[in-house]
Amino acid sequence: MEKAVVTGGLGFIGYHLCQALLEAGLEVVCIEQPNETSIQGMDEKLLAMGRNALFEHISGDLDKEDSTIADRLSRADVVFHMASPSSKDSKWPMKHQTILQATKWVQFLCGSMKDDARILFPSTVEVYGDVPGLITEDTPLQPVSSYGMIKAEIELCVQKEAQLNNLNYTILRLPTVYGPWQRPDMTFAQILSEEAEVYQDRSTLDALFVDDVVNGFVLAAKSTNQSDIFHLTSGEQGQWFVAAQKLGAKADILKRTHSRSSLSPKKAEQQLGFNVTVTIEEGLRRQKEHMDKWNNTWDI
């Protein structure tokens, strides 16, 4: 693995992933939609990575199937498809339109990639719906939210298009991810920002620090498995609520609205060598430090 493309590379997880790939000595092409002006710290992120000769930023539109993007895709050993129509993916009225748009993106990406390259897609544990007990990768999908349903449909599209285009795929089902640059509408960020009204995240099954998640993506990209699906999880029950409680969340935020469930970590541990290394205490401290630094920068 020498060349990587990261769609949505200036987003929350995408930015940390680009940094990790650059540190590992890979050539990285970061693709962002030209109208995504709301991305936190875009200029700061580009400045941090733009100093690296291995980094290339392309402001391109996946809807328009840009020829420059297609060229970079054709040279990549791995494509991390982190981009999503995130402003729409939790809204019921936009469900069908969002699936059509996301499907078109996957078809363009897979159709442009070279044979035997790998596409990695971040899905969500919300594809399982409200399932009690231990959840494995073989647990039937029963999504109940629009977000879970959309991700489940994109998973199927990734698998189909990878097969049609002689590619390998890896789908990583993620819980809530937190850390520096977490979206401001996420619960932990809301509490740390001392928002007057705090809302519970759409997924409260588990919580992982972004560095651990990025490590999982890198391990999956290096894997010799042809195509597969994995959880990235702490393997512990109620970690999201543990973190929220440590932040001083109010009782309504700590109220469980789903069955008591946990995600099995065994498959990712055994086949990818994935293990969680950042404790909740350490992760929350690092997120708070970053938010304090960022807010102070704006106050100057």
Keywords for this entry:
single chain, 7-stranded parallel sheet, two-stranded parallel ribbon
Can you characterise this structure?
- Helix 6 links the parallel strand 8 (176-178) and strand 9.
- By secondary structure, the chain is of the alpha/beta class.
- Helix content is 42%, strand content 17%.
- The longest helix is centred in the C-terminal third of the chain and has 20 residues, at 280-299.
- The protein has one domain: NAD(P)-binding Rossmann-like Domain (Rossmann fold, 3-Layer(aba) Sandwich).
- The strands form 3 sheets. It has a 7-stranded parallel beta sheet with strand order 3-2-1-4-5-7-10, sandwiched between helices. A two-stranded parallel sheet has the order 6-11.
- The chain has 11 helices and 11 strands.
- Helix 1 (12-23) packs across helix 7 (210-222) and helix 4 packs parallel to helix 5.
- It has helices spanning 12-23, 42-50, 67-75, 95-112, 146-164, 187-192, 210-222, 239-246, 251-254, 266-272, 280-299; strands at residues 3-7, 27-32, 55-59, 78-81, 118-124, 133-135, 168-174, 176-178, 207-209, 228-231, 261-263.
Set down the secondary structure blueprint.
Layout: E1 3-7, H1 12-23, E2 27-32, H2 42-50, E3 55-59, H3 67-75, E4 78-81, H4 95-112, E5 118-124, E6 133-135, H5 146-164, E7 168-174, E8 176-178, H6 187-192, E9 207-209, H7 210-222, E10 228-231, H8 239-246, H9 251-254, E11 261-263, H10 266-272, H11 280-299
